[in-house]
Design a protein that fits this description.
alpha/beta, 5-stranded parallel β-sheet, 10 helices, 26% helix, 21% strand, globular, binds zinc ion
Length: 327
């Protein structure tokens, strides 16, 4: 079949489901083949605790996928966030088995047994400004520095796995309603379950995350853009009262255009404005601009890397190990 050429002729599906899967390897095999046969691209993770994915494809293939998943009783409660795009959001399809569908190093937390109370986007919109409400962002710094809810508390973490260490900072809000949020809701399933386990009582989670709130309620009071883990890098979710909160790494002008530094040894993921992008040839500093391995800047600041695809953590990991060896 011809691939559609119309603008917005692709769907991007974001979804997860916590449910016990007995034989993740066997399920992976079957699932992978099904997705290949339906021309889907993206990243799907399967674990004994469930299924998590972001995929793109034609509306027909995506509709078929959703029907295929929902027909499986294990996933009958699954909630798909559907966004539209004029192209695929991924270059390839990866279907992998991992220990957890969202890496938290908390294998004993089972959200399908107990998790924070779901708040649908409309309910969240109604109560988010109440005095007894505290909104907590469970995403990493590179994500919330691009955009977050007005007045949200952030945890200063570089990776979701670090959040349990930060829970003590929330102790002072124990008598308030705590509402957790993340991109698509999956991190909150574990984070809110963990809060309950730690003795917090009024724990709620924004069901479907920022993305669903943007689709259903126009994203009011989400400031900046929402970081996403596909080729789009960041998406607009607020059509009601949008503002820019990030600034160009080079010149400091208000800017939310995320690029990867053209120096592959740096690969810093920062906002760089259109104009600085061209003058700096996609590099974040003068040193990076003159690096011998600097990649060719095509105006996007996006570079296809190893067969494993784009990994936003690489820069962070490398900087940490340099700090250890004292470079
Ligand atoms: Zn600039
Ligand atoms: Zn750089």
């Amino acid at each position: 079949m011809m691939e559609p050429l119309n603008p917005k002729a692709y769907f991007i599906l974001l979804y997860y489901c916590f449910t016990p899967i007995e034989d993740p390897e066997a399920f992976r095999e079957e699932h992978h083949l099904w997705c290949l046969a339906h021309h889907l691209k993206g990243r799907i993770i399967i674990a004994s605790e469930g299924l998590n994915g972001t995929i793109s494809g034609s509306p027909k293939d995506c509709e078929d996928y959703m029907a295929y998943i929902k027909a499986d009783p294990r996933f009958s409660d699954i909630d798909f966030k559907i966004e539209k795009s004029d192209k695929h959001a991924f270059e390839k399809l990866h279907v992998r088995v991992k220990e957890e569908i969202v890496h938290a190093d908390l294998p004993n937390i089972k959200p399908w047994q107990r998790t924070g109370t779901y708040l649908e986007p409309s309910e969240f919109k109604k109560i988010k400004d109440d005095e007894d409400v505290v909104i907590v962002d469970f995403r990493s710094e590179y994500e919330y520095s691009m955009g977050k809810f007005k007045n949200a508390i952030t945890l200063g973490i570089e990776n979701f796995r670090e959040f349990p260490e930060k829970i003590k900072d929330l102790e002072k809000f124990k008598d308030k309603k705590i509402i957790t949020y993340c991109t698509g809701g999956i991190k909150c399933e574990k984070a809110s379950a963990y809060l309950l386990e730690q003795g917090f009582e009024n724990v709620y989670q924004l069901h479907g995350g920022i993305i669903k709130y943007g689709i259903e309620e126009g994203g009011e009071d989400f400031e900046g853009k929402c970081y996403v883990f596909d080729n789009r890098v960041a998406v607009e979710v607020n059509s009601i009262n949008p503002v820019t909160i990030s600034a160009c790494f080079v010149c400091g002008v208000g800017c939310d255009r995320m690029v990867n530094c053209a120096n592959p040894m740096c690969n810093n993921h920062v906002p760089i404005c259109e104009s600085c992008g061209w003058t700096m040839e996609g590099a974040c500093t003068v040193e990076c601009k003159t690096h011998p391995e600097k990649r060719i800047y095509d105006g996007t600041g996006y570079y296809q890397k190893t067969p494993n695809g784009y990994n936003p953590y690489i820069g962070l990991i490398r900087r940490k190990s340099e700090a250890v060896i004292g470079k």
